[in-house]
Amino acid sequence: MMDTPVIETARLRLRERTPGDAEAMYPSLSDADFMTWWSRAPFTSVEEVRESFAADAASADWRVWAITRLGDDRAIGYVAAGLKRQGDVSEIGYMLARAEWGSGVAREAVSAVIGYLFASGQRRIFADTDPENAASNALLTRLGFTLEGRLRGEWKTHIGVRDSLIWGLLAEEWTK
Fold it and tell me: Is 0.90 topped by the overall pTM?
């Protein structure tokens, strides 16, 4: 398991996500509309989410931060960062409860993790999104990511075979 340090921003506290966060995240992760652009179908029970979070926590290659508001430890989303074989390249992913959409929380949380990763010596961060996930693609654009390519038929998902957009950001391009 990788060290997942606490990161604080003006409004948020990002801490290690634990299986105990399953109850807070289940309403989002079980919502079919919310889960449209995910590579898996919606979760069917809190226990299934808990088991997934426990498996993630045991992974040697991923860090997952729960997004919480300062002074309130209830998870409202999360940001994940996976270390790739090169050792200085990370993949990121994120999700935020629907009630928080449009509040700037996703941008604040993902920016904080990006800043941490680059300060820790990463040279490149990338993300993989569905071409039709307009909100996620817009967030990556606002954060300064460059659309690097499209992988056709990359994911077999609960809504069919989907293409994938690959977004990249280099350390020297990062400005907070």
Answer: yes
